[in-house]
Amino acid sequence: MSRMGSGENWVGYQLIVHPTLHNWFARRDCPVPRFLFLDQPSQVYFPPEREVAAEMSINDLSEDDRSAVKRMFRYVFDSAIPTFHVIVTEHADIDEEWFQSAVVERWRGGLKLVPDDWP
């Protein structure tokens, strides 16, 4: 992977290959799970220091990086088909209708994927 360039390239390759393969398998009714789980694909656009990145929003990015994040999510959004679902956990929150309509839950203000009171 290190010879393939930046983290942005790595994410880009994965976002092209995974949906393409999953759609190919789905069209052939192969016994492959019909979902893809992506965890924070936009993180390559934020600084590596966790405490700084956690406090940033997409609006803090440069215009080029903001556009790249929007294009990335638009591609993911457009690659989903009725028999294939993409699940994304993400901090970036794009203020566009197509993005907002796909948001199912916001884990903020104490609301978490795994609540604190679970054993």
Instruction: Tell me the Rg in angstroms.
Output: 16 Å
What are the secondary-structure elements, in order, as H or E? HEHHEH
List the total number of helices.
4
Distance between the termini: 38 Å
Overall pLDDT: 83
Beta-strand share of residues:
5-15%
The general outline is globular
Structural class comes to mainly alpha
Main-sheet strand order equals 1-2
Describe the main β-sheet briefly: 2 strands, parallel
Number of strands: 2
Helix percent reads: 40-55%
Q: Based on the structure, what is the oligomeric state of the protein chains?
A: single chain
Which residue ranges are poorly predicted, with pLDDT under 50 across at least 5 consecutive positions?
none
Keywords:
single chain; globular; mainly alpha; 8% strand; 4 helices; 119 residues
